[in-house]
Amino acid sequence: MGTTQLESVPEPKYWHLRTVLSEALDSEFTVGEILPNERDLAARFGVARATLRQALEQLELEGRLQRRRGVGTTVAPPRVGVDVGAEQQAWPGASEDAWQPVDCAVAAPPPAVADALGTDRDEAVHIVRRSRVSHGQPVAAELLYVPRSSVPDLTAIDTPSGTARARAVLRELERLELEGQDRAVELGSARADDARELDRLPGAPVLVVTTRFFTRGRTAALSLATYRADTCRLTFGASGNVEIHHGPERRAS
Questions:
Q1: Is the pTM of this model over 0.90?
Q2: Which of 51, 60, 142, 246 has its CA 20 to 30 A from that of 73?
Q3: What is the per-residue pLDDT for 155?
Q4: What is the C-alpha end-to-end distance of the chain, expressed in Å?
Q5: Which tens digits make up the pLDDT trace of 109-147?
Q6: How far is CA 188 from CA 51, 63, 226, 241, in A?
Q7: Is the Cβ–Cβ distance between 56 and 65 less than 8 Å?
Q8: Which residues contact 223 (CB under 8 A, 6 or more apart)?
């Protein structure tokens, strides 16, 4: 059988530059230091600005750099570990939950979320917005979608809006028996709302964790949590499984 000669494949210019820049970050810069502007960097390394941007974007994705509004590109501190798995499954808002409720609205969810919840696409659901802080900095923003059928007693509670209603939805959700949950992690780009909340630029790389909570054989709630890819590395605990999909097949590791 033939073999692929990887050494015969030329290394992209941006990838070589990424390696050179990474070495420069280790030897010439300190955490929090602002890098020279793109024009000066491109001139220093003798590359086109488009090539430089590709290299900078790759280093940002790897957590080596941060782009900050009104500041520029700075050397990032080491990523913090954020636990997104637990040995015991629990509803959002449980006692050891690291998230803080921010707001709650009642509106129709995105079509894909409605399909996952099994609701009509024009049916309004509770949308709880929560935030997560680690080491004093915002690391994640979450939208938790809860069908009204999951919290039918909420109308009897005097919680007009905001944080109080968010806490009420979470409290009523805990009354249900949690039968199970599953998670999926994807690389994505920050939307405008998430970028503002996470102090990022729109389009910055993020990690999106989708969690479905099941009770009575149905999806009782769905969470879309957006984590900063530049500062976070996600950990799943001792019992967390990572599913790898290969077309119609599925393997667990």
A1: no
A2: 142
A3: 65
A4: 29
A5: 999 999 999 999 999 999 999 999 887 778 899 999 999
A6: 22, 15, 9, 21
A7: yes
A8: 92, 142, 143, 144, 145, 209, 210, 211, 212, 213
